[in-house]
Design brief:
Layout: H1 2-8, H2 13-39
């Protein structure tokens, strides 16, 4: 999977590294600001069992 992405990135090595870092940052931002807030209410982190 990662090799497929690496082969598809255009440019020479320095540009590919920058593009890979930006791509990884975009995926993390999408998860952090998009998916995780949607799934937060469904997760049992607020269920306190100590009483």
């Amino acid at each position: 999977m990662y090799a497929w992405i690496w082969r598809r990135l255009p440019g020479r090595l320095p540009l590919r590294i920058i593009e890979a870092v930006l791509l990884a940052a975009a995926v993390v931002a999408l998860l952090w600001f998009g998916l995780f807030p949607l799934l937060g209410p469904l997760l049992p982190f607020d269920d306190v069992t100590v009483g």
